[in-house]
Amino acid sequence: MLKIGLTGGIGCGKSTVARIFEQLKIPVIDADEIAHQLVAIGQPALAQIQQDFGIRVFKPDGSLDRKKLSEIVFSDPKQKQKLESILHPLVYQFIQAKIKQLNTPYCIICIPLIFETNMTHLVDRILVVDCSVETQIERVRKRDNMAIERIQSIIDSQVSRAFRKAHTNDLIDNSVTDDRLAEEVKKLHNLYLSLSNYQDKLVCE
Predict the structure, then answer these.
(1) Global pTM?
(2) CATH code for position 7
(3) In what side-by-side order are the strands of the sheet with 28-30?
(4) 181 closest CA partner among 7, 4, 27, 189
(5) Domain span at residue 113?
(6) 17, exposed or middle or buried, with CB in 10 Å at 0-12, 13-18, 19+?
(7) Of the candidates 137, 106, 127, the residue with the CA atom closest to the CA atom of residue 184
(8) Per residue in 140-157, pLDDT tens?
(9) What's the structural domain count of the chain?
(10) What is the dihedral angle through the alpha carbons of 113, 109, 99, 169, rounded to the nearest 10 degrees?
(11) Is 4 exposed, middle or buried (0-12, 13-18, 19+ CB in 10 A)?
C-alpha cells in the first residue's frame, strides 16, 4: 500500500485537504487526532505529562489543559522537546498499527511535523499543502482567536515554506478556491491510484 505523508504549516489547510481525500473513500490517519486520544484521562501519556509538567497543565476535572500546555511548549524549546519525547514515539507506534489494519491502494497519513520529527521514512511520498504566511496567520487568528505574536511563534518553530517545497513530491497551493482545491486533490488521487498499482506490480515481480 502506498503511504502519502500529508503536511504543511499551521493554518495551511491540511484538514481541508484530508477531508477531500476522505470524500474519495481514502483512509486518513491523523497524527494530531491520535495525540489527542493519547492524552485522554486514564491514558499512560497523561500520567507522564503530569510527572514532567506538574498539575499546572491540568484542569480541575483532571483533563489536560491543552491551551496552557501549548503556551508553555511554544515559549520554551526545551519544554517542547520534553513533550515531544513523551508523545511522538506513542503516536508513531499507533500510526504503524493503523496502517497494518488497512487494505486500500493508498492512504493519507497527516503528520504536521513530519520534517521536524524526522519521520519521512514512514511514508512513500510527501504531499505539502502550502499558502502564504499572511494567509496562515489570518486563518489561525479567525479559527482559534489567537494572538498574532503567538501564531508567528508557532510558525517560526516549524520548518520554513521553502524547506517544505524543496523536500516534497507533491504540492497543493491552498490559496485557491474550494472548487479548484477539490480538482487538485482529485488529480493527485488519480496519480496515487496509478502509483499504487505500479508499486503492487513491482512487489509481485
Answers:
(1) 0.86
(2) 3.40.50.300
(3) 28-30, 106-110, 2-7, 125-130, 170-173
(4) 189
(5) 1-27+106-205
(6) buried
(7) 127
(8) 999 888 889 889 988 988
(9) 2
(10) -100
(11) buried
Quote the cell numbers at residue 46.
497523561
Asked if residues 108 and 28 have their Cβ atoms less than 8 Å apart, the reply is yes
Helix (H, G, I), strand (E, B) or coil at 85: helix
Q: Out of 69-73, 142-146, 160-164, 195-199, which region has the weakest mean confidence (pLDDT)?
A: 195-199
Q: Which three cell numbers stand for residue 131?
A: 499558502
Separation in Å, CA 90 to CA 7, 45, 47, 104, 156: 19, 8, 14, 24, 25
Domain end, chosen from 66, 81, 101, is at 101
Cell, residue 34? 491520535
Q: Hey, what's the cell of 48?
A: 507522564
SS3 state of residue 173: strand
Residues 169 and 70 in one domain: no
| Residue 117 and residue 57 in one domain | no
Picking from 71, 159, 171, the residue whose alpha carbon sits closest to that of residue 112 is: 159
Residue 64, Ramachandran bin (φ over 0: left; ψ between -120 and 50: alpha; else beta): beta
My answer on whether 121 and 203 are in the same domain is yes
Shared domain check, 81 and 57: yes
Q: How far apart are CA 81 and CA 11, in angstroms?
A: 22
On whether both 121 and 198 belong to a single domain, the answer is yes
Question: Do β-strands 2-7 and 106-110 pair in parallel, antiparallel, or remain unpaired?
Answer: parallel
